[in-house]
Amino acid sequence: MKIKINQNELNKSITIVQKAVSSRTPLPILSGILIEAKNNMLILTATDLDLGIKTYSPCEIEEEGSIVVQAKLIGDFIRKLPSNSYVHIETTENNNMEIKCLNSEINILGNSAAEYPDNTFDNEGNSFKIKSESLKNLIKYTYFAAAQENIKPIFTGCLIEIKNNLCSFVALDGYRMAVKKEPIEFSGEVSAVVPSKTLLEILRIIEENKENTEIIVSQSHISFRLENTIIISNLLDGKFIDYEGIIKDNFVTVVKAEPTDIRDSVERASLLAKDDKNNLIVLDIKDNNMQINSASEYGNVEENVSVEKVGEDLKIGFNSKYLLDFLKVIDNEKIVLNLIGKNNPCFINEEGKQDYIYMVLPVRIS
C-alpha cells in the first residue's frame, strides 16, 4: 500500500471507526483498525463483533493494499499531526506501516488483513430512508432512558417501531420511559430493538449530516448508511414491553412551566440530593408556585419556581437525575407535567406537542 491523504479526512475517519474498537476483547486483532486502499478510496473498518463501522475517504493511491494497525496508536499520532497537512502512508511485506507528514515519521508494526474477521456489512431486509435530522431527534430524546445494565438485556436497547407512516423510538429502564415519534415516508411495518450504545454512536456521527439516512432491518441486524459511513449492529433478542399500555391520561394536576427555570433549580437542589441513594428532590406544588426541596446531613436547599397549575395541590418526590436527563434535551419554551398523584407516574411533554412523552416514576417520601 502506498497512499497520500489529507490529515483532516484521515483523522475524521479514524475517529468515526474507533467507536467500534473493543477495549476488552479475547481477539487481540479487534483492538486494531482494518485499513484498505482501493479504487481511490481509503476504507477503514472496526468491529467488536456486536457493532461494526466502515467508512470511506477519498485519497491518492499509488499502490493498493491492506493492513491492520493498532487503533489507539495510529489514532493518537494522526490526531496530533498539523491540520490540513498531507499524510503519506506506505506498508511493506512484513506488515510494517510507515507514516510520514512534514517533519514527522512513525513506523507501526501491524498485522495481516487476512487475520481480520470477515465481518460482512451486507444486510438484507426492510429498507427505508429517514431524514437524518429526524433520526437525530428520535435518538436524542430517547436513548438516555434505556437501562445501562439490566437483568433483561432487552431494556438496554431502544425499540424502533414503524407503522402508519410514523416512526417511534421507545426506551425504558424500569424507572422512566421516553417515547419519541417522527413522520416517515415508508408504508411498511418494522419492529426491532437496537442497543442504545449503537444509537449513541450514530448520534455522534450524524451531528452535521443533513442528508437522508438509509436503514436496513433484518431478523438479526440493523444497518445505517449515512454519507460515506456504514454502521451495522446486532439486534437484541426478546419481546419489548407493551409501552402504549403504560401511558395514562387520568391526571389530577397539570403544571406548565419554563424548562430553564426548573432545570436550573433542580440542578442546584441536586447538589445535596446526590447524598441520597435515590437523588431525592421533593416538588411541593401549591397554587402557582412549585417549591423544589432537597436535604442531606450537610444542609438543605429550597427553590421556588413560578408555574401555571390546574387541578389539585400536590407534593411528590423524584430522582433528580431522571428529571435533569429530560430537561437537558428540551428545546421548547414550556413543558407540561401531567400528574396522577404522589405515588403514580408523571408524564411530561413539551407544550403543544404530542410527538414526545417522558414518563418518570416518583420516589416515595415519608
Helix/strand layout:
Layout: E1 2-6, H1 7-17, E2 32-38, E3 41-47, E4 51-58, E5 60-63, E6 65-70, H2 71-79, E7 86-91, E8 96-101, E9 104-109, E10 126-131, H3 132-140, E11 157-163, E12 166-172, E13 176-183, E14 190-195, H4 196-205, E15 212-217, E16 221-226, E17 229-234, E18 253-257, H5 259-273, E19 280-286, E20 289-296, E21 299-306, E22 308-311, E23 314-319, H6 320-327, E24 335-339, E25 346-350, E26 356-360
Antiparallel strand pairs: 1-5, 1-7, 2-3, 2-6, 3-4, 4-17, 7-8, 8-9, 10-15, 11-12, 11-14, 12-13, 13-26, 15-16, 16-17, 18-22, 18-24, 19-20, 19-23, 20-21, 24-25, 25-26
Helix pairs in contact: 1-2, 3-4, 5-6
Your description of this structure?
This protein has 366 residues and is α+β, with helices and mostly antiparallel strands. It is 17% helix and 44% strand. The protein has helices spanning 7-17, 71-79, 132-140, 196-205, 259-273, 320-327, and strands spanning 2-6, 32-38, 41-47, 51-58, 60-63, 65-70, 86-91, 96-101, 104-109, 126-131, 157-163, 166-172, 176-183, 190-195, 212-217, 221-226, 229-234, 253-257, 280-286, 289-296, 299-306, 308-311, 314-319, 335-339, 346-350, 356-360. A 9-stranded antiparallel β-sheet has the order 14-11-12-13-26-25-24-18-22. Strands 6-2-3-4-17-16-15-10 form an 8-stranded antiparallel β-sheet. It is elongated and about 75 Å long. It starts with a strand and ends in a 6-residue tail after the last strand. The model has no long low-confidence stretch (mean pLDDT 93).
